Structures are given as structure tokens and as C-alpha cells.
Amino acid sequence: MTNQSDGMTSANVDWDARAASFDEEPDHGLSDPAVRRAWAGRLRGWLPGRAGDVLDLGCGTGSLSLLASEQGHRVTGVDLSPAMVTLAREKLAGRDAVFLVGDAAAPPVGEQRFDAVLVRHVLWALPDPARALRHWCGLLRPGGRLVLVEGVWGSTDPVGIPADRLVGLLTPMAGQVRVERLSGDPLLWGEEVTDERYAVVAPARASGQELGEASAAGA
């Protein structure tokens, strides 16, 4: 799902009610060919070069899932909103993709492991971002990576997570963290933006077992 601004937070949004109009935003529905190409190009640089298993958390209506699928990846999408999941299933009907209703912080994927965990505009709204990051790293195969698209939005009462804070959270559990600034690319958003928007790509450093032990110790 997505960001809100000026006092609105993810917790007080009825995402089922928003599902029908969700794709009207240029960076949600990707109906503009230029916006779609911009996101496809970024994903190509963030996701593994070879076909793999991608977990799209907070997948919304599945627009990024569709781009990943078009690039040859097998996709599992998770969203808390049943209405969003229904639309994602329709959007990727016939493709190698599965969509589940569940909490992005603790997705219902069992012991399955992934080559990439893709999360856009979700981490900032979670009550314990560090715990979620540890769990997500534990879902990665050796050599897997986290791809996190986040930012800080709004002028009156900004919400979000600054890049510096996210890098600090990831440093104990990830390899070299790459930050890619996105504010300067209006094609991604369908307009010029002035707030902080960025992507972080980070390979998991520890094994799933080690991360689980660290999570238990920090609980």
C-alpha cells in the first residue's frame, strides 16, 4: 500500500474502501507508459538479474508484482487488504504469481525462502521496523536482497522514515547498503516532487537462523 501525508497515517485508512480507486495514482496503477517504464527500469536494477522468487509485501493491487513477473520472476504478494489482494490476483491472472492476505511484518509464507523481498511504502508505518527487517532478512536465501522503497512525506505533519535511519537499522543485519535517491525522477511519480523519496537495496549478511536468534534476543 502507500504513503499518506499531513497527519494521515496508514493505520486510519480503510484500504478495502480505497482499493477500487488505488490505481488512479500514477505510481500505483502505472497506467502511464512513461511511469511504467520508469518503474520497470528501476526494478530491473534492484531485483536479481536472473529469474528468481520475489516476495512483494504490502503489494496493493499488484502493479510492482506485475512488473517483476514480466521480468521473469516468480512472485508471492502479501497485503492486509482482501480487496487489494483480489485486484492483484485479477491483474496477474495466468502468471506465476500467488497473492495472500496477511500482515507484511509477518507474512504467511511459512518456511519459504526468496531471492528478493520487495517492500514499497510499508516499513514506515510498522510499529517495530527493526523487528520487521530482521524477519524479512530471515526470509531470504543466501545471496538474497531486500529492496525497500521509502521516504518522508507531507509538509504540515511529515510521516515516513528518513534514509539515514533506515540505513542505521539495516547495518547490523545486512551487507553493503545501497541508497538510491528517487525524488529527482518525476517519471516515477507522474509529477515533480520535493520530499524525500529513495530506495535501499541491501543483501542479507546473516543466515535466517542467526537473524531469528537475534530477533529472539532483542524481543
Description:
This protein has 219 residues and is α/β, with parallel strands linked by helices. The protein has 8 helices and 8 strands; from the N terminus they run H-H-H-E-H-E-H-E-E-H-E-E-H-E-E-H. The chain has helices at 15-22, 26-29, 33-46, 63-70, 82-91, 129-137, 163-170, 208-218, and strands spanning 53-57, 74-79, 97-101, 114-120, 140-153, 159-160, 178-181, 196-203. Strands 1, 2, 3, 4, 5, 6, 7 and 8 form an 8-stranded mixed β-sheet that branches. Helix 1 packs parallel to helix 5 (82-91). The longest helix is centred in the N-terminal third of the chain and has 14 residues, at 33-46. The two termini are 27 Å apart. The relative contact order is 0.16. Mean pLDDT is 89; it is low at 1-9 and 207-219.
Q: Report mean pLDDT, rounded to a whole number.
A: 89
Q: Which range does the strand content fall in?
A: 15-25%
Overall helicity: 25-40%
Number of helices: 8
What's the helix-strand series?
A: HHHEHEHEEHEEHEEH
Measure the end-to-end span: 27 Å
Radius of gyration: 16 Å
**Overall geometry:** globular
Q: Can you count the beta strands?
A: 8
Kindly name the structural category: alpha/beta
Major sheet summary line: 8 strands, mixed
| Uncertain ranges | 1-9, 207-219
